[in-house]
Write a structure and sequence with these properties.
This protein is an alpha/beta fold and 435 residues long. Helix 1 packs parallel to helix 4, helix 1 packs parallel to helix 11 and helix 11 crosses helix 12. Bound molecules: flavin-adenine dinucleotide (FAD).
Amino acid sequence: MTIKIEKNVPVVGEYDVVVCGGGPAGWIAAVSAARCGKKTALIERYGFLGGTATSGYVLPISGVHLRGERVVGGITWEFINKMIDAGAAIAELPHGHISFDPEYYKLIAARMVREAGVTLYTNTFISDCLTEGKRVNAVITESKNGTEAVAGKYFVDATGDADIAFRAGLPMQKVERGLQPMSLCFLLDGVDATTDLLKNCIHHDGKGQKRSVNDVIHNYLSEKYEEGKAPQFGGPWFNVTVTGNALAVNVTRAAADATDRDAMTAAESQLREDMFAIVGLMKEAYPEFKNCNIVSSGINAGVRETRHLEGVHILTADEYLSGYYFPDTVAKCSHPIDIHSTSDQKQVCRSLKQPASVPYRSLVSESSENLIVAGRSISADMTAFASIRVQGTAMALGEAAGVAASLACDNGDCPVTKVDTDELRAVLLSRGGVI
Ligand SMILES: Cc1cc2nc3c(=O)[nH]c(=O)nc-3n(C[C@H](O)[C@H](O)[C@H](O)COP(=O)(O)OP(=O)(O)OC[C@H]3O[C@@H](n4cnc5c(N)ncnc54)[C@H](O)[C@@H]3O)c2cc1C
């Protein structure tokens, strides 16, 4: 059964650039466009910024360095330095993971958005968009204010799930293998992290990481899994929250499509059971965890993969792994090809020999004149995706998307596929971008 609903919806703002989603790609895109002098809106479903970084307790920003060489600059590097100066982040070199405190992340990101003059709509979910030909005219939002519309000349889709591109009817790639699983990450207090069992595998603490996965606990949980006493899991990977004594844990694992509400409901309810089951096993087995407590879990399960735009160019594994340099490169990447198994406890990791490049044409589609996709849902095949998905790259792509939208505005509202990429790259370089 369907019900037809017709209603008049107020247009609450008209902007040069509307950025959808305030995760790593989105909030940087908004700052980027606003610093180009564009009237910019940022719309986010939660009451804070940071996306998976803060709502999912994915604490390291990865993909910023490759063997000590920095591959991300611009607004992202400025933000990381603000967090370091506040004592809320550590840059672990040469691996280049940036550990951070999630509360400071929210605070400093919100300040930068405010200082750039962005109009921020939080607690606002984008449910649809209005299109005319190849243009998006407005996004439809739901909040305590009811249904509203936010109109714009250009839109950046940084929802992670390509929600706007999907609603606007842009083509999406077919996923050739299972989507990478999601994980409900959480914070523990009361853990003795100074022992040999833990100290060398507390990833990203800048104190000489030996191995990211804790093999001892992995093997123990694997045995329990074989006996039917542990749920599906990956890792565990541990991180520090920098300013406090909490240990961030990434260990649960569920395969589900997060763009399907019912699948997400089932997966999150299972993951919550699994989180308690796994912590219970660790408490029993290791004195380090005997007195620990779960103090908080992610607002939602961390989602690794959903939709992928089928853009002007699908970035391929060959291009990625060979370090092919595109003339319209807008971001450089350093994270390994990092694939988490949907069916067992494995993770396949393949390091890059040299930085990989992302071309601007992987952010846009011939099917839209005014929509740019940034972040993990850009047009990349499943292998390249398994590296570009990390935060450092998402943030660099956000900055590029913000500048591109601004240049399109300046250039007589030209289609996003026709943006002068030499000019785009020149702006990124002038801001300290590493491309
Ligand atoms: C378990 C796990 C571990 C990971 N480990 C690492 C790691 O160690 N290092 C690393 O760098 N990366 C890691 N990642 C990857 C990384 O966190 C994400 O890929 C990255 O955050 C993607 O950024 P994004 O901006 O594209 O999307 P997201 O972080 O998903 O942000 C999207 C934003 O849009 C908002 N949004 C979505 N839909 C709507 C809508 N319809 N209306 C309004 N708002 C909306 C969301 O609330 C969110 O704020 C991990 C991911 C997971 C899940």
